[in-house]
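Below is a filled-in request sheet from our internal design queue. Each sheet records the structural input a requester submitted and the sequence that came back. We keep these sheets so that new team members can see what a complete request looks like end to end.

REQUESTER: design group, bay 2
PRIORITY: normal
MODE: inverse folding
CHAIN LENGTH: 177
BACKBONE (tokenized):
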């Protein structure tokens, strides 16, 4: 496929694992190579049974563990992973297409703003919502292409409000999709 598309094998691999998406011209070329109508290709992709990946990164273990059940309640069809360490979250994002990331802004030695930039470099279609106990960070957060901002502790209603604002919506499993 890579040879026929005139791209590297790693590019095709990223398309296959969902960490990158082909642009419109490439989608047309893929449909030609596979002998499939573009609309059929896009429709089958949109109707995929794949569960969206959602991550939560917070360096305070009790907050992380207390927040995961709230996400599971609101996003019953998602694969939800929690991380204390940003490097582990990045490793997961390199291997899995992350649809939504909840990031604490203050992460000890690093910060959620830098983590956001790194996640968006891996997949520009990741929706990022910042979590913090300090509203002072709000202005800096908006300069990173995040889609939302929640004050801790997170609540089901707060998450539902954020889901309405996603730049790149995905099936959440929430009854009001």
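RETURNED SEQUENCE:
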């Amino acid at each position: 496929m890579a040879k026929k598309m005139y791209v590297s094998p790693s590019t095709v691999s990223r398309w296959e694992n969902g960490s990158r998406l082909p642009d419109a011209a490439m989608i047309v070329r893929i449909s030609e190579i596979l002998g499939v109508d573009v609309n059929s290709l896009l429709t089958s992709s949109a109707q995929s049974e794949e569960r969206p990946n959602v991550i939560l990164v917070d360096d305070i273990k009790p907050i992380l563990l207390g927040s995961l059940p709230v996400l599971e309640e609101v996003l019953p069809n998602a694969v939800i992973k929690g991380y204390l360490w940003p490097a582990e979250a990045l490793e997961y994002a390199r291997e899995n297409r992350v649809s939504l990331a909840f990031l604490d802004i203050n992460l000890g030695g690093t910060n959620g703003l830098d983590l956001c930039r790194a996640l968006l470099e891996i997949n520009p279609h990741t929706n990022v919502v910042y979590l913090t106990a300090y509203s002072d960070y709000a202005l800096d957060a908006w300069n990173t292409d995040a889609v939302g901002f929640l004050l801790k502790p997170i609540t089901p209603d707060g998450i539902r409000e954020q889901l309405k604002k996603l730049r790149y919506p995905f099936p959440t499993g929430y009854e009001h999709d």
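SHEET NOTES:
- The CA atoms of residues 1 and 7 lie 9 Å apart.
- The first helix runs from residue 2 to 5.
FILED BY: M.R.
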